[in-house]
Amino acid sequence: MTMFSPQRQHLVVIGNGMAGMRTVETLLRLAPHRYDITVFGAEPHPNYDRIALSSVLAGEKSLEEIVINSREWYAENGIHLIVGNPVMAIDRAARSVTSAAGLTMPYDRLLIATGSKPLAPPIPGLGLPGTCAFRDIADVETMIAAARTGGRRAVVIGGGLLGLEAAWGLKRQGMSVALVHLMPTLLERQLDATAGTLLQRDLDRRGIAFFTNGQTEEILGTERAEGVRLADGREIPADLVVVAIGIRPNIDLARAAGLEVNRGIVVDDGLRTEDPDIHAVGECVEHRGQLFGLVAPIWEQAKVCAARLAGDESATYVTPPLSTRLKITGVDVFSAGVLAAADEADEEITFQDVARGVYRKLVLRDSRVVGVVMYGDVADAGWYFQLLREGTDIAPMRDTLILGRAVASVAAGAAEPDPAAAVAALPDTAEICGCNGVCKGAITGAIAAHKLTTLEAVRAHTKASASCGSCTGQVEGLLALVLGGDYAAPTGEKPMCRCTPHGHDHVRREILAQGLKTIPAVMQALGWTRPEGCASCRPALNYYLLCAWPGEYEDDARSRFVNERMHANIQKDGTYSVVPRMWGGLTSAKELRAIAEVVEKYEIPTVKVTGGQRIDLLGVRREQLPAVWRDLNAAGMVSGHAYGKALRTVKTCVGSEWCRFGTQDSTAMGVALEKMTWGSWHPHKVKLAVSGCPRNCAEATIKDFGVVAVDSGWELHVGGNGGIHLRGTDLLCKVSTPEEVLEYCGAFLQLYREEAHYLERTAPYVERVGMAHVRARVVEDAENRRALHERFLHAQRFAQRDPWAERAAGADAGAFATLVPAE
After folding, report:
1. Lowest mean pLDDT among 27-31, 545-549, 742-746, 813-817
2. What global pTM score does this model have?
3. Which helix (H) or strand (E) element contains residue 386?
4. With b meaning 16 or more CB within 10 Å and e meaning fewer, what string describes 585-595?
5. Is residue 225 over pLDDT 70?
6. Structural contact between residues 664 and 786, judged by C-beta atoms closer than 8 angstroms
7. From the CB of residue 697, how many other CB atoms can be counted at a distance below 10 Å?
8. Which of the listed CATH numbers 3.40.50.300, 1.10.340.30, 1.10.10.1100, 3.30.428.10 matches domain 426-486?
9. Helical H segments across 726-814, by residue range
10. For the chain, what is the radius of gyration of the CA atoms?
11. In CATH, what number does 647-799 get?
């Protein structure tokens, strides 16, 4: 029995990336019943948006959020998807391919979309543990793991787009980042020297160190990467080295099959190789001597190749005019055409506003725009590119052209342009989304055909604005154009995730208003588009229900992150760290003796004092966890929740009991606060501190809730953060008694628990709602303050259960068992 229809030809696609699958998507629209399709992918994932890898690295998106075609999509379209099993050989005579796992698959037509490989220069030390490229999700996971498991310093080699995105993502992960670039300025292929210098200046201000004109001679280290040595002798220490200097077409498979290759797989104007049954698209191809790395020409290739596969022999590929529009760490840049005058006949016009960080350069030839470079403000990029693409005579507005469309048009005698009219005037063929190659006609057609009314709906149907987001304004303009008065521009909340159009605040309100008490109930009542949700919304919903219905809602462990499921922090080698709670930073001989005995008994390799005045046991194997917890419990110690979105620590100084400067007993106050708040779950981790005098030795003014003792009582501070983005606290108020400290603390934490968005620290929460709001709810309204405090204490009745004790007694035993291979 065969899995393929005898009436259809069999199309095999080698490569499950963006180029190959864009071709398949287009083919399914043109000829949905012409082929049975099999797709081989080297990675173990469905097709995802590589453009958005930098967002995953920066912590802005998850892998699930950048998936373009889900596994369900393949199944719904009858596509046989084979992942994690790359094709290793093409037998052109037999018309078949063979995979790494030994699977042989016949084909009638073959599409090669093997993409590109990272350039790997012959640098000594490249390949050591602690080195990686930046090309796929596995590389991103390597970098995130390095940042989260003790890596403090990263060196990125390469100052092109990939290198800059890697550097910024690692910076966002909390690492100290240095970037080494061979050329004197950044992005030298996309920006001229002035714009490149401006970009370096802005990134330097954001904490990235640069070594331009830097040639890497060696990656230092023996067992793993420890740094980089440059040709001039300078050495840069590093725990992680990322090489992102460029790509080259992946032509190995085609070469081995005897196809014509040069720098890439040579294809004709129909994207066909010398073998008439084999096509190729994407970064692996070479067309008329040109290679490709931008999405716009690749989408055009996909369109032409799909038409040829559908039987249209007239479809012809012509490389379109290219532009680059990028958002690098929040800075917009755009370029198209040439970067500089070719000779004296060319003209260069520049504009620079140093204070605003804006720079523009136009290159003119025979009264036509042949080059554009923009930095900082790229609002008129589409207009300039249209002038370049259409070869418009700009002589009537030559003198004001550099000032932008509005000024130049008025100076040339036209009416001041209306943004809505400008969008309406664009032809249907005008490209709106460069990342995904979506034109105006495709967007307006989808809006009309599918009755789309929101930006998210347009993204879902067309992919326009779904990657970098720089075309969002134009897409919203097209929604307004098609819908007219029926379109309401979004003014409210950003959706929680792609599973729902609703924002965090709306979901929290509806949980209470409708009495929704399970995750499936929320998803059903609020119209979730994915019945199981995703890695973004499930943990959020679990927390919101836990907060809304204490004692009624049963915590869903499946919807928690791995550290919270295991009640310990996983480390880079797969072991865990255990941090017992020490009330207010106090300990005793009994507790220290118990810790020492546990360390010796279970041969725990590392014992570390933390910045929060706790002791961290590092290197505990998973199967050891329940026994370690049991022994610590026997000494009266409970979980420190160092792994959770929970109350972590209450840091204290010795205060008036011992310190000659102390004005109040800060240690006792810290113990009382920790006894009240331990076990509480929050939208994000929460840290408290109590200082015994204004010298602030406990660093209370960078904590989520900080207490500073003064002669007259206590100052209460909120919204601090001592992490990557340092933020000092705001003064909430002053109180006189320890009882007031406890009440105000419970009230503020409950307000934060009830109003913050999941994964929102107190610092951004306070900035979002404003201190006036916080003071009105906690300080000025005494009745509301008492109610908040009582709700917090009520929730604590159900939260203050030691998860270590429960698991040491046998709960969730299967989670800690070691899997043994079957006989």
Report:
1. 813-817
2. 0.59
3. helix 381-390
4. bebeeebeebb
5. yes
6. no
7. 18
8. 1.10.10.1100
9. 738-755, 762-769, 771-775, 782-799, 803-808
10. 30
11. 3.30.413.10
